[in-house]
Each structure stands twice: as structure tokens, then as C-alpha cells.
Amino acid sequence: QSIFKKIVYPLLIMKRKNAFCCTSTSSVSLRLVFGRSGNMYLWLTALAGLAILFFFYIRAHFPYFSADFWTVLRSVGLGLRLLKYKRIKPFYSILDCFLDAVKSHPDKIFLHFEGRAYTYGEVDRQSNKVSRALQAEARLKEGDAVALFMANEPSFVWIWLGLAKLGCPAALLNFNIRSKSLLHCFSCCGAKVIIASPELQGAVEEVLPTLREQGISVYLLSESCSVPGINALLDKISQASDQPMSRDLRANVHIRSTAIYIYTSGTTGLPKAAVVTHERVWASSFLQAACGVTTEDIFYINLPLYHSAGFLIGLVGGIERGITIILRRKFSASQFWDDCRKHDVTVMQYIGETMRYLCNMPKKENEKNHKVRIAIGNGVRPDVWAEFLHRFGDIKVKELYAATEGNIGFINYTSKIGAVGRVNFVHKFFFPFTVIKFDIEKEEPVRNSAGLCIKAAVGETGLLVGKVTQRSPFVGYAGNQQQTEKKRLRDVLKKGDLYFNSGDLLRIDSDNFVYFQDRVGDTFRWKGENVATSEVADILTMAYCVLEANVYGVKVEGHEGRIGMAAVTLKEGQDFDCADAYKQVATYLPTYARPRFIRIQPSLEMTGTFKMKKVKLVEEGFNPAQIKDPLYFLDPEKKTYVPMTEEIYRAIASMEIKL
Predict the structure, then answer these.
(1) Which Enzyme Commission number(s) are listed (predicted)?
(2) SS3 label, residue 490
(3) What does the pLDDT look like over 496-512, one tens digit per residue?
(4) What is the pLDDT of residues 574-591, one digit of tens each?
(5) In the listed set 61, 88, 104, which residue is the last one of a domain according to the structure?
(6) Are residues 576 and 538 in the same domain?
């Protein structure tokens, strides 16, 4: 307003009174210089004043206008590219994108791993050798699924590419799973071949009898193997030709074909194989571009490649950008920044835990001496986020929200601390969603008298659901129609509509920022991993003394997610056998899924529909001063459960005991 009063308004008044030439000496000079063009000068000045006024008005009332504008522009461009890939024939896949990169810059470094660099050309040739070896040995043909049971290493990349050249989808197995879970994950994708890293040979041998009974071909990435039923593969790969593979081998692959299977615990039961189509691969690969990553960036992956974050956003996104990727076997807080400095890393990935680990490291003088400019990930707490920026400099944190099998996701492209995303009209047009009222006690949506769901108010926490459309499909889980159906929610806003049930509680404020609140159902998240409570309960009841187990996640001060805890009842006449319970969970569950606290109860409280009640147990936590039931703590050093004491509780609260 002050700008308008001081600049624009006087100029307009002067023009109207035709007094421009006599207002001052300077005005007379201007009139003499410009003559009849003085009117034009006046209008240009007025327009400039209005533009300044508009700029300050937008900045005051729409502080995120610039970020919204450029994000919408970028999103439209990426959307048009996806539309092009859907229609182009023959089908153009991310593999074709990689092959184009090989042609344009074969000598550019694609992967750095443990001191060794691999160019785009080298990885391409190595993947050709993999294709030919598997074609000859395993008799693979287009459409055959192959399970990869491997840790982060370059061979993971070229084996996946080699399979893609044969038109074979890869099932990315979590290398932490064992026994029952391993067999389940393998069988549900319908694979007839499994390829494992040498260090995982022991886990494969545990289930080898069952694999052999089912006629599964088992390959180990080694030069030789003396175990009957396990075939060495590395020697065959080294002897194979590296000549390009014919495109005809994958001639029938299209945009809706299955590209990979990624496992997610979802809300209940054993891990489920989320079907990831080529369309979804392309959409996920665009996240780097949406976050501002360019072809000149260097991307650091320390998250597991069996996850959608490491594989789809990191590896596949890197291929789409044609960049160099620094691949690490696993995350190391002590070596993280040294790696970034050594390799000139400009983009990093994170989960909430990794950021916290970095912030917990001792402070050093050169903490801001790096080239990292963008951090892409999810699950970071607001206080850790703020501390991270304070410690390590002006890094644009792009917090994401998405589910591997879901049809809706968000990006916080403004870097507003605490938000997992921001809604704009383009996003909602392409990926329609809503947040509905949810009854936490009953664990179901609230419906009105007409049987329809009720939209949550602005700022109110509710269940996120994404509308299933042609543009935003929900494919579901391989070999598990029952669980696929459980994720479908019908009659949401009108009779007959269909939505994907995210199982997550979110809140959207009046400024259109999205905040993650909690996860519903029988799942908790710890160390960046989703854990299905029913699977943990099944393992606990294998302990001879345990009759029933009610597993849930509880908050721990200073930690992201929820750590595993179980309320159990004992068989008649039995005491809690600490050693046997530890043996079961240590043998059959990965570290992050093991219940760290056990609560012994005389009986488990049930709902009217015979579901175990968890809300009260979650609220009560594991404080021995407030819980009268016997409590136990899993002590990894003693390799057993020990009675939970107030001293242990204080040590956990002060972080003397590391969880």
C-alpha cells in the first residue's frame, strides 16, 4: 500500500491533471527529453510500480508461490513424459533409458563401490554376460520371475539389468529374513530361480530341502560350491559373451507389465510382494528430477537396494538422470561425511534414523565442508531435521511420503521443517485423494447414515486414502488376493467408488502442508523397517512357555518410529523362559523386528470382535514404575531376556543403552 501511495498513485493523478510537465524541474526535463513518449514512460513507470506491488503482495500472502509455481511446471513436464512413455511403441523402459545412457556416455562412471569404479559401458557389458549365463543355465524366458537374495553390491545392479534384458521381473528379497519368512517371500512371487550372495549361503541352506522339493534352481554368486543343490554362477558369468542382447527377448513387455516385486509388511501378516509395474518404475524414477537433481549430480545410496527408497528412488532415479552413484554396502554414521567429501557427493538419501545417527556423532570443525545440496528421504523428526541443518549447513531436505504398493505420495518441496509433503491442484488432479475420519479404537473409518465416509476437517487427523483411477492404479500383491482386497476401500465419498487404504493417519493444515501422524493396524516401524505384528507373535508363541502374544510398537524418547513390545500370557504352570524366548526371536526374526520388551499378563484383553486390544498397552509403554505386570528386556549382550528394572529404563531414556 505504501508503494502504491508513494509511487503509482501520484503518477496517475499527474497524468489525469495533465500536470506532469510542471510538477518539478526534473519533470520538465523528462518532458523535454521524452516529448510525446512521456505518456509511455508514465505508463511503464505505473506498470513497474504495480509489478513491485504485486510482488510484495504475493510474497506476503503466498510465501510458497514460487516453489508451487516451479514444482507445478516441473510436474507437468514429467507427467507429459510419462504419458509419452505410455503411448510410444515399441515400449520404452528404464532399461532402454540405461542403454541410451551407455550410448551417449559409455565412459562416465555409473557406480563407485568400495574403491572400485564401474562405467556405464562396463555395467552394460557385465549385464549382457549375466543375461547369457542365466539364459543358458537357468533356461530363463520372458516373464519368468527370479528372486535376488543379495546385499548392496554392484553385482546386484548388473544382475537386475541382465534379467531385465531377458524380460524377467526380479523379486528383491530382504537379506535379513530367514526360514519361514524367506520361503514365504520366495514362493508368493512365483519364482523358479533364486540368486544369492555368498555370505547368505547359510540362510539358503536352511531352506534348501524345501526349495529342492519344489524344483527351485538355486544359484550362488561364487566360482564354486560344494553343497548339492546349490549351483555356482560366477564362473558361468565370467565365461559368457558380453555382446548385446536382442530386444526381441523382451518384445512383449509393456507399461503395465510387472517390472519387479518389492516386499512390504503392509498392515498384517507375513511380508507381501508388492507388484511394481514399469509404469510405477517410471513414476518413481522421476522423484529425483522432481527434487531438482540434475545430470551433473553425484548420488549417495546407503539404504538397502531391496527397498523402494534405495532401488526405485536411488538406483532407478539415478539411471533416469544419467548420473554417478556412490553405492555403499550399509550405512555408516562415522564414515558418511568422509565418503561425501571423497566422492564430491551432492545428493544424499536418508531415513529418519540415519539423520539422527549423524546428529549424534561427535561434533567436528569441518562438518559443513562438503558439497551435499539435497537430501531425499522420509521419516525424520522435526527436532532432528532442525539440528541436521544447524550442524551440516544449508541442505535442501526433500521429505517424502509414499508407500511401495500405494497410489498416492507427497513431496515437501518447500523444505518446511516437519511436513512430509505439500498439496497443489496439479498433484490432486493427477492423484486424487482424501483424508477421512477414522475410529482408532475400532480401527475402521467413520461412516455417516448413508454408509459413506466423512471427510476430515482442515487440520484434523484422519486416514489417507487414494482414489483408484486409470492414472493412479492400485495393482496389489502377488499371490495374495486376500491382502490386496483388504487394502481396497469402497463407498468412500459416493456409492461404488474405490480407494486405496494407506493405513496411515495424516493431517493437512490450512496452508496445504501434509503431516504424518501415525500408522494404524497391526504394524510398527523401527529402524526404517515395517514390522508385521502377527509375524512376530507367531514366532513368540513358538517359545514353549508362551500361550498367546499381543505384539505392538511403543514410542522411545529420542527415537523415530516404534520399537517392538509384546504382552504375552503363559501356559498353565509355566514361568517365562527368558533363554527360550530369546532363542526363538533371534533365530527367526531380523534384529529390528525382535520385541525388546515383554510384558507378562494373566490374560489378553479382547474387543467385541475378538481382536486384541493394543491402544492402552501402547500408551502404557514399558516403564516399570508404572506397570505392575512383570516386564522383561531383551539384552543383546547377554543374549537373553532379563527382568526390566528402573535402572535399565533410565539408561534407555538417557541413551546409555543403545536400541
Answers:
(1) 6.2.1.3
(2) strand
(3) 999 999 999 999 999 99
(4) 999 999 999 999 998 999
(5) 61
(6) yes
